[in-house]
Structures are given as C-alpha cells and as structure tokens.
Amino acid sequence: MFPNFRLAMAWLHTWFGLFLGFVLMVVFFFGALSVFDREIDRWAIPATRFEPQPMPSFDKLLRPVFEDMQPLEDARAAMRGQVDGPLPERFDTVTRMGAYTTHRDPVLALFVGYEVPNAREKDTAIFALRTVDPRTGTALPDDRLKIGSGFFYPLHYSLTFDWKNLGYWIVGFAALMMLVALVTGVIMHRKLFRELFTFRPNKSTQRSMLDLHNLTGVVALPFHFFFAFTGLVIFAGIYFPVTHTQLAALHDKHEQVEARETGLPYARAGVAAPMAAVDPMVAEARRRWAAKGMAGDVGFLAVQFPGDANGYVSIYRSGTDRIALTGEGIHFKASTGELLREDPPPTLVARVNEFLTGLHLQHFRHWLLRWLYVLGGLAGCACIATGFLFFVEKRKRQHARQGSAGARVVDALAVTTVTGMLIAALGMLVANRLLPDAMPAGWPWRGAMEKYAFWGVWALAMAHAVWRTAPVAAGRLAPAWREQCLAIGVLGIVAPVLNWVTTGDHLLRTVATGYWPVAGADLFMLAGAGLALLAARRLRRRATLAAPAQAATLEAGHA
After folding, report:
1. CB of 101 within 8 A of CB of 316?
2. For residues 477 and 539, is the Cβ–Cβ distance under 8 A?
3. In the β-sheet with 108-115, what is the strand arrangement from edge to edge?
4. 3-state DSSP call for residue 36?
C-alpha cells in the first residue's frame, strides 16, 4: 500500500491521531485539572474552605454519624430493578462501613454498605454516602457536586459514560492507540533532537503548527507514553475481567483460601458481637507505623461485618511520603481489638504495580511534581490541538478545489474539542456560583444542574463552531477560533469575580492568608483568560491582514 515503512507509519499517525485525538484531548485536559481536583472542590463548595484535617475520633465523632446514615433516594432507585419485591424503609444489616480522607481533603467522605433483602444476586449491597466536616461531624448538603473529584476526574478516565463501562473502553482504546501514535510519530520524525529546539512562529500557519506539534510532542514524550501505559495498567481489570467471568469460581475460591491464610474472615459468622472501641486500634496502628519510621496519618479506615463475631477493623496509612500507592494495612478484631494481621511487604510484582499506580494517581506530597503533571497534560493538549490545525491547514486548498467539506468538518470538531471544552468547564464553574443554594421543588438536584450546564454550554459551543467555520483562506483560522477564545477570556474573568461576590474570598484575601486552593484556582482561570484574550487579539490581527486573500480563495473555489 505504501512505498516505504515510514509513509505507512505516517498514515497510521495521521488517521489514528485524528479520529482519537478528540477523545485524548478530553483525557489530557481533564487529567491536568484532576491533578488539583480537591482544590477545585473547595472552590466549588465554599463550606469546605478550611484547612485539611486528620482522621477524627471514630468512637466520639464517626460512630454516631454511621448509625444515622441511610441510602439516598437515587441509590434506592438504582437498586429497585435488582430485587424481588419492595425495598425496606430502613436497612439494618451493615456489611461494611468506612471513612476516607487525604492530605488535601478538608472534609471526610463516609460510606456504609447495607445488605439488600431479596436481592437477585449474591452479595448485592446498597450504599449510603455522606460528606462531613471532620471537626464537628456536621454533614454537608447532599446536593453539592464535587466538581473536581466528582466530575472532572471521572470525565478524565471514563467520559462519564457508565453504561456497560463504555467510557472506560473508549478511553482505553484511545490510550492504546496513543501509544501507537507516539511510536509512529518517533519513526516519522527522525530528527527529534533538532525538533526539540525548532519553532518558527513567524512562518506560515502550516509550518508553525507543525513545529509546535513536534515540539510539544517531543518535550513531553516520556510523560505521554508513561501515563498512557499506566492508565491501561490501572484499568486492566476492566479490560481483561477474567477473574469475574471465565475464572469467577477460581477467584471466589482464591478469596476463601486467602482469608484462611491471612486470618481475616471471608464471611459473616452469623453471631452478634458488640464492637470494641476503635480509637485504641488507631493508636496502635500509628505506633506500629512510627516504629518503622513511617508517617502515621490515617488515610482510610474500614469496618468489615460490624456487629458480627467475624467483624474486623482495617486501618490504612495515607502514604503521602512516598510515590507508591501503598497503605501498610493493619487489621484488628472488631469485638476485642486483638491484632489479626499486619500486611507484609509486597512482592516485587506488587511493588512495581503500586509504584506505577501511585505515580499516575499522585497521592503524594510534592507540589512541584504536581505542576509538572499539569504542564505535561497541557503539553498533550497543545500537541493534539496543533495536530488538528496542521491537518486542516494542509488540506484546506485541496478540499476547496474538490468541493469537499472534510477540512471544515474537522475544523468544527477541533474548535468544539479545544476551545469548546474550555468554555464548557468555565461555564460549569460560573453556573456553580450562580445557582441558588437550594433548588426549587420539582427541579433536579443542584449538582445535576451543574452537569446540565456543562453539557449544555458544550453543545452551544459545538453549534457555534459548526456555524462559524465557513471556508477561509489558507493561513487563516476560522472566525470560530477567535470568537471562542474571546468567550474563554470573558468566562475566565467572570468566574473569579463571581467567587468574590458570592463568597467574599477575593484574591487579595486568599493570597494574603495563603489559602492557595482557592487563590490558585482563581489565578489559573485568570491566566487562562489572559492567554485566550491575547490569542483572540492575534487572530483578529491576522484576519485583518489576510482579508484580501480570503476573497481570492473563495473566487478560486467557485471557479
């Protein structure tokens, strides 16, 4: 099909990059935002704007909250199709409960799993979720959406398409093809070192876009390769679910054998037993971590089979002092506080997996490395965006002569994906500040309205992109690019202003007090707004200079 191997690789790079670049653009951008997802949560939920807290007392503060929790109506609605008969008004048999926090979380996430009577499948559970202030135990309103960790972060790896895990599969396939695109890109561009230092902004649009595409691709090449690979490793259980399909029986048997080896119960004993005080167990876990020279912050605390003779308490370290995602779990008998097991050092394979997972999910304390992650993600966005522009620019004249709309369609989709996505994210943050604290009766919950705002604004951006990407002269971008850059600039200023008006947390206050989660979010939006307005200004200037060429191109196309 091709004269040589290099041209074959160029074909693969071009077409796989084009069709999957739209997905990868979303993955890169919201992956970059997810590096600071907890900070975005604080911007979006002003009630959480206080300093991160350690895991509070289980016995004094958490136990009463757990006893008061019950599944919300949306959880009940999702469960009704999986049971025979009506659901009970109140669930009583608790299968598991736990609390989770990080060094960047001021609030505490709680969950309780309840056994479901008359469930059609074994071990079916319904969960009650709650977010509380760890200082007082006060619950936050249930309708608040954690925009960073609850929306932007899932959008990064699943596109929020949960049906049959479709979003995971789309992103996984895109990541796999991205590895192919990286390899083929290296083969295409043999002079990588020279391209690392080559950028000619004053040349033609096609030349400048190719230079910038090569530059951003080469600079962040290890980052792009590593994160595509580790993302596939993390979700390998979804892509190859053999333990829950072909090997389901073997998997269940292995869990039973492992339970006998570890001493941790596999199932309920069916004998009631009161739960002992948990705080002394936490203190003992911290003492054991300290003896190993490890930081003693508790990141995750869970109680399995509470109220049963086989119940046990698992306490995991937050592990912020290392890259590997490891918890050094310590397990106690729930009824007596007796030590059951201290997790041994992982095997070599497990250590490699923990390191790769930890490096991807970055739960560690290292702010400089976090910003390098953000820059790597944005470099990926720039690489994809310039690839789109190069593709359109290279084919603009050819498609105009042929009467084809191919270049215009790709241009409209590129505008939708690059600038339209930013407009949608900023529109969601603006909606977050404009929506009332309590939605009127009969309306969707507040978090749902914020999601509707995101998708609605993105749909409007797409409609605008289709409308304003009429054929233009070679070397000149469609008006939609300039106009959407203006929209980004305006929204990037409006959102911090609304944050000031609605909460009183303006930049002078947040910077002066060193409250960087909110100050950083405002500064990031303002910096993005400045860059977008600068881009819009330059595009307007180029459009003015290229106006005579526009008329000539259109006349040539008609001829």
Report:
1. no
2. yes
3. 125-132, 108-115, 94-100, 298-304, 312-317, 330-333, 339-342
4. coil
pLDDT tens, residue by residue, 124-172: 889 999 999 999 989 988 888 999 999 999 999 999 988 888 999 999 9
Q: What is the pTM of this model?
A: 0.87
**532 and 425 in contact (C-beta within 8 Å)?**
no
Q: Which tokens go with 480?
A: 């939609």
Provide the token pair at 40: 């975005």
Label residues 102-133 b or e (16+ Cβ within 10 Å = b). Answer: bbbbbbbbbbbbbbbeeeeeeeebbbbebbbb
Whole-number Å distance between alpha carbons of 201 and 198: 10
Handedness of CA 387, 389, 392, 397 (dihedral sign): negative
Q: How far apart are CA 26 and CA 105, in angstroms?
A: 25
3 state DSSP class of 100 = strand
β-strands 108-115, 312-317: how paired?
A: unpaired
**Among all chains, which residue has been given the structure tokens 């994160």?**
227
Alpha-carbon span 47 to 292, nearest angstrom = 37
Maximum distance among all Cα pairs of the chain, rounded to whole angstroms: 89
Angle at alpha carbon of residue 174, lines to 168 and 179, rounded to 5°: 125
One-letter identity of residue 492: G
H-type helices in 71-220, by residue range?
A: 73-79, 153-158, 166-188, 192-195, 205-219
Phi and psi dihedrals of 298, rounded to 5? Answer: -85, 125
**What are the C-alpha distances in Å from 379 to residues 211, 222, 374, 465?**
13, 12, 8, 23
Q: What are 264-290's pLDDT values in tens digits?
A: 888 888 899 999 999 999 999 999 999
Q: How far apart are alpha carbons 255 and 88 in whole angstroms?
A: 31
Residue 99 dihedral angles phi and psi, to the nearest 5°: -135, 140
Q: Residues near 375 by Cβ (< 8 Å), separated by ≥ 6?
A: 220
